[in-house]
Amino acid sequence: MTIETATETRSQRLKAATRDSHGALDKRIMAGDIFASRGQFARFVRVQYRFHRDIDALYDSPGLDALLPDLEGRRRLPQISRDLVDLEQALPTAAAAPLQPDLPLPVALGWLYVAEGSNLGGTILYKMAAKLGLDAGFGARHLAAHPDGAARHWREFTAALDSVVLSAGQEQQVIDAADAAFRSVHGHVEEEFA
Ligand code: HEM
């Protein structure tokens, strides 16, 4: 049993609340043997493309930009698209409508938490992608750490995320949205690795 304390931050609560869905996703992706070949790795990049296409409009939101540091710099769809071109992939076609920029703030924060957090695991995947001859200049651009360092860039994001004032109901909306984001990515994995 975990005991919640008043000092626990929003990002810590999000991590705890999504631990199982993150673990299941990690396992599913690694079971897809994504470093067996460039073709297998491309399936993972296609998953990333679908996820980041879904959330891309959020990076244009002036409201989010006012709250979060370097919002535009955190957008990764352009790098993912270039990775797919490097890997000789056609861009996946949209199965469903992407998120709209006027999404309620707590929902947008939940989705962005998942996107930003995925950069942490991404640093591990980046190192493994070197085995396939992929790097920041070719095929694995979107996994390359931010020049300031992935951990620092993440802490700047979570500090801002943690300081947004929300009601208890909105707090739950953030968690539900992060959970929905993980489930959505899982759905993309099931399709791309079918
Ligand atoms: C697109 C798929 C993925 C998404 C959306 C995702 C999402 C996340 C999120 C939200 C976090 C932040 C957790 C926190 O609050 O600290 C995170 C951290 C992490 N992820 Fe993932 N992840 C993905 C794939 C992977 C994969 C495939 C691996 C490993 C093989 C991985 C390994 C990690 C690790 C090691 C961390 C750091 C955990 C820590 O600092 O304690 N992730 N990921």
TrEMBL record:
UniProt xrefs under SUPFAM superfamilies: Heme oxygenase-like
Top-level taxon of the source organism: Bacteria
Alphabetized GO MF terms: heme oxygenase (decyclizing) activity
One GO BP annotation of this record: heme oxidation
Protein name, per record: Biliverdin-producing heme oxygenase
Organism whose genome encodes this protein: Stenotrophomonas tumulicola
